[in-house]
Specification:
single chain; 376 residues; Rossmann fold; 2 domains; 7-stranded parallel sheet; 13 strands; 17% strand; binds ligand GMT; Thiol_BshA; Glyco_trans_1; Glycosyltransferase_grp1; glycosyltransferase activity; N-acetyl-alpha-D-glucosaminyl L-malate synthase BshA
Amino acid sequence: MKLKIGITCYPTVGGSGVIATELGKLLAEKGHDIHFITSSMPFRLNRMYHNIFFHQVEANQYSVFQYPPYDIALASKMAEITKREKLDVLHVHYAIPHAVCAILAKQMSGENVKIVTTLHGTDITVLGYDPSLKGAIRFGIEKSDAVTAVSKSLVDQTYELIQPNKSIHTVYNFIDERVYKSVESSHLKEEYGIQDHEKVIIHVSNFRNVKRVPDVVKAFHEISRHIPAKLLLVGDGPEMTIVCKLVSELNIEKQVIFLGKQDNLEELYSISDLMLLLSEKESFGLVALEAMACGVPCIATKVGGIPEVVEEGVNGYLCPLGDIETVATRAIELLTDPKRHQQFSLQSIQTVRKKFHSEQIVSKYERLYYELLQKE
Ligand code: GMT
């Protein structure tokens, strides 16, 4: 049976927006009608699909309000689309505000639409510590018809922090294997001034404090004292000024290439030898999965859901948070041992194929929708 599915996420750059959009695209390819109900067009929605629709939520600024009423505008739009399009499912990404808005929309529409909420991390591991929001997060989770989280670690953390009376299923993230694979992009090396004998280390993030980009720069500094290497820093965000200052203090400006926000990341991964992801919190680490799918092993911190993606000594290495020395030692070991590097690279690709295959994950969501609809 073909379903009508509404999807709400934060559509701008960020792992949760990426997953929501990719899920919508793959569900559309399976024949379902997808209605994105978001504040702007999801950024990865890069081609026409006859069965993907976009309904823009506009939160206007009125002089009587201190803040634009996004949540109410979203709930109203969700209710309108649910009723008009006879949606079967509203799949929202983030407990607050999106699950709470969906619950309100269901009541407003009077329709028996099923609410599926996916937790991505920030809503739990950051906002969950705010006592003023905890009740709303719990409400959003408990009143959803089904709740998923992107790693086992996030499921555990949700129970620990929020204590909801609700079962939460782990549904891992995925990538589109047709996009994330090793591609021929060696011309980029020459264009970026990377010599053949230099190793390429990559970091991709939104440069928030939680990503610990200064640790990446410090580890790279140590690595580059032993082997010729270049660091690709991809993304932008609040920590950028601090990171630039550190690069200049360490006198490694010539070895660090700042690329800002980029699309077509597979081309950058394809010229990279190693990814560093040294975050303080990470419910999953989608960029690690993207890099691994292109055959790039990852050295990452042993936090949150990362150990469910990066397996110590199998496809990468895990290091304690802030332990820059161990990161550098492991990186040097891996980058100077071609045999082990090749083995980790193959294992990275295998892990993505076996554990995080898009077909397997999308079918899991699909089964969940059908199960809920059968419960009537
Ligand atoms: O932290 C980010 O980079 C953004 C954030 C988001 O909400 O988009 O990412 C979270 O969701 C991603 C997709 O599920 C996960 O891969 C990230 O690990 C997670 N970030 C955190 O837990 C800090």
